[in-house]
């Protein structure tokens, strides 16, 4: 399971101390877990939170007075919800521990050890999601079985389900073929009774083989007999299946004269499976093969390799040979791939110019060697297309399929992530994810990205995009937020979530902050020379709060470029200010001397966000984007937004709503008194500052 901002943990904390609860929340956020915490003040609030809002985990202080632990367990158990409760304690008492476990607590966590809280909470969260996934899958399976049953019943093909040689299900076409009025007439009857006597001995051998688990033949020709004694040549097609939880065989039985020419049917099926341009398998057929392979991995613990492949600088290659020659280029790439892979490897056209290779029974070194051979086959040779000799290199992202990642969406996601990462650092390389040896692959990937980020800082390879902040009340003013991108080797842009976590891990966020702030000041100066008074809002990170020279750097840049400091607005996440309050206060006081304002972003996700404002005089608050999700339809989110706006107005703070996606949200924000709105509904982010504010 991924822990990040897109998968927020809904945490219900029962603790008499707000500060102690907030410290736990901050520790979780600093560890990369997005948290949506709630803290009830009394038993009624606890009951209301369980009843009205979905929760993931309850973290309850053993000796809490506001909501005693016994009451917590009583209300959780009475709710009937799958809501794991963890006991928060400072020391372990054996008798107390046994009593809490008897009440239904799942785990005990030690308050003084944040690493222990993190480990246990992650484990419980993963278990909870696994249970939820299992329930969802059960529901989906029941729905699929219901639909399949309906489809089978309405099918014109005669279909029956056979368990241990007996009929357990048959559709109308099957009953009609043999002269039965209803399924009750055939239920429990042996399939042998519908086979002509002279074919029974041969058919018994087949049933015996199937009972031993041997693979059924795709087609079996025999002679069938109806209840009236009419004999007719028949073809049976067997498929392993399950019916009402029992393993069985699905049998499709057709009269011989109704069966299509086998060769024609085989050719038609082949045409359905291939891509007409390249002759490779198409995406749908490849996905079925991948699903079968993943199923085998889960059942037999086998290992296989998956590669996703794209030619580098594809747009540039098309420019060389002409857009109308795209199919010829793709066909030439496919031919080179086909000639390079092994005879048992499965190759497919997976997208417009993306290919996929599935190599069976391959361990990690073999998968890496295949990827490298594919890369070298292109890098060391010339590809011919439309009378052009092209130097084509490949970006390859792959996954070693094994028990630890025997899930099709996860496999494709990891392969795609590796492919995009490879493209981002210049291409002509392969990045293979091995869940059993993550450290090795991760070290190589991170090292390439660290070098790429350092180069971007020193060589000005970052790019700034702008998104307008639209005032909802009062006179319009020109104000944009700056959004960081990284220019890729192929001219495309790499999104910040791809490289910022690596930059943070390797201490590069401070350098990036300096680059962004310096570039923003120069842009403001350029706008001033055009008689445009443009205010820019810039995100800075926790690293800059610890940088003693950052305030001086801002002052120097403002002076060098002759920029009014009031046009520069800095924003810091609420959680980072809470955990670095003294440094944030000093930083704010320092930049205030230049007229620079500082505000809070991701506001509202703490336990008591407005308490922070009594210690940190933010110029504005930017409401966390999670409150914008389905704002027009969510009464809970609407109420929270109104509370934020009212409290901010009382304190004299401006409010900003980001990630606004629809007109319904705009209506709610306007009525709540929010000062600024920002989001794709109003204007997408882009490289130009061309929004008409007037």
Automatic annotation (TrEMBL):
Residues 127-154 form a coiled coil. Residues 10-126 form the Response regulatory domain. Residues 446-694 form the EAL domain. Residues 302-435 form the GGDEF domain. It comes from the Bacteria. Residues 164-214 form the PAS domain. CDD domains: EAL (cd01948), GGDEF (cd01949), PAS (cd00130), REC (cd00156). GO terms for biological process: phosphorelay signal transduction system; regulation of DNA-templated transcription. InterPro entries: CheY-like_superfamily, Cyclic-di-GMP_PDE-like, EAL_dom, EAL_sf, GGDEF_dom, Nucleotide_cyclase, PAS, PAS-like_dom_sf. Keywords: Coiled coil. Transmembrane segments: none annotated. One of its GO terms (molecular function) is cyclic-guanylate-specific phosphodiesterase activity. This is EAL domain-containing protein. It comes from Agrilutibacter terrestris. The lineage of its organism: Bacteria, Pseudomonadati, Pseudomonadota, Gammaproteobacteria, Lysobacterales.
């Amino acid at each position: 399971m991924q822990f990040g901002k897109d998968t927020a943990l809904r945490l219900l904390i029962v603790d008499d101390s707000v500060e102690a609860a907030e410290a736990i929340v901050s520790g979780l956020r600093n560890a990369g877990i997005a948290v949506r915490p709630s803290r009830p003040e009394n038993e009624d609030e606890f009951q209301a939170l369980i009843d009205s809002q979905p929760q993931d985990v309850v973290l309850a202080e053993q000796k809490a007075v506001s909501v005693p632990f016994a009451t917590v367990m009583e209300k959780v158990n009475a709710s009937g919800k799958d809501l794991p409760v963890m006991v928060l304690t400072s020391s372990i008492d054996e008798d107390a521990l046994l009593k809490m476990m008897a009440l239904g607590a799942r785990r005990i966590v030690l308050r003084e050890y944040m690493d222990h809280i993190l480990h246990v909470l992650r484990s419980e969260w993963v278990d909870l999601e696994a249970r939820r996934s299992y329930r969802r899958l059960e529901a989906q399976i029941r729905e699929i079985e219901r639909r399949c049953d309906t489809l089978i019943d309405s099918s014109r093909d005669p279909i029956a389900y056979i368990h241990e040689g007996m009929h357990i299900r048959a559709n109308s076409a099957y009953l009609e073929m043999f002269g039965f009025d209803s399924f009750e007439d055939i239920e429990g009857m042996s399939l042998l009774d519908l086979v002509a006597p002279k074919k029974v001995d041969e058919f018994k051998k087949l049933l015996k083989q199937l009972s031993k688990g041997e693979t059924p033949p795709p087609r079996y020709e025999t002679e069938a007999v109806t209840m009236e004694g009419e004999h007719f040549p028949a073809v049976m097609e067997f498929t392993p299946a399950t019916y009402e939880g029992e393993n069985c065989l699905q049998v499709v039985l057709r009269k011989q004269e109704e069966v299509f020419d086998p060769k024609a049917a085989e050719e038609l099926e082949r045409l359905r499976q291939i891509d007409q341009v390249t002759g490779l398998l198409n995406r749908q057929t490849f996905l079925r093969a991948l699903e079968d392979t993943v199923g085998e991995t889960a059942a037999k613990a086998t290992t296989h390799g998956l590669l996703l492949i794209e030619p580098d600088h594809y747009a540039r290659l098309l420019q060389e040979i002409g857009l109308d020659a795209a199919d010829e280029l793709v066909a030439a790439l496919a031919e080179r791939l086909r000639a390079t892979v092994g005879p048992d490897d499965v190759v497919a056209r997976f997208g417009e110019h993306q290919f996929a290779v599935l190599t069976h029974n391959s361990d990690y070194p073999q998968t890496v060697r295949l990827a490298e051979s594919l890369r070298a086959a292109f890098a060391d040779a010339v590809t011919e297309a439309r009378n052009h000799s092209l130097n084509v290199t490949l970006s390859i992202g792959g996954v070693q399929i094994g028990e630890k990642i025997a899930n099709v969406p996860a496999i494709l996601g990891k392969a795609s992530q590796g492919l995009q990462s490879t493209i981002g650092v210049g291409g002509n390389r392969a990045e293979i994810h091995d869940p059993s040896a993550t450290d090795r692959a991760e070290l190589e990937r991170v090292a390439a990205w660290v070098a790429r980020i350092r180069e971007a800082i020193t060589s000005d390879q970052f790019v700034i995009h702008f998104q307008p902040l639209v005032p909802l009340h009062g006179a319009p003013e020109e104000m944009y937020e700056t959004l960081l991108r990284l220019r890729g080797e192929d001219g495309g842009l790499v999104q910040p979530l791809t490289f910022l976590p690596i930059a943070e891990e390797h201490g590069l966020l401070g350098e990036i902050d300096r680059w962004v702030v310096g570039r923003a000041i120069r842009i403001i100066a350029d706008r001033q020379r055009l008689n445009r008074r443009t205010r820019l809002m810039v995100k800075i990170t926790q690293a800059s709060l610890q940088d003693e020279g950052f305030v001086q750097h801002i002052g120097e840049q403002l002076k060098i470029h002759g920029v009014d400091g009031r046009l520069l607005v800095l924003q810091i996440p609420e959680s980072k200010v809470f955990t670095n309050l003294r440094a944030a206060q000093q930083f704010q006081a320092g930049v205030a001397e230049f007229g620079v304002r500082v505000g809070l972003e991701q506001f509202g996700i703490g336990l008591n966000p407005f308490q922070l404002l009594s210690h940190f005089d933010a110029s504005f608050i930017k409401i966390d984007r999670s409150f914008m999700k389905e704002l027009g339809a969510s009464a809970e989110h609407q109420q929270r937004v109104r509370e934020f706006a009212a409290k901010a107005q009382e304190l004299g703070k401006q409010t900003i709503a980001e990630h606004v996606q629809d007109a319904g949200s705009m209506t709610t924000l306007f009525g709540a008194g929010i000062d600024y709105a920002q989001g794709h509904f109003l204007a997408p982010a882009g490289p130009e500052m061309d929004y008409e504010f007037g």
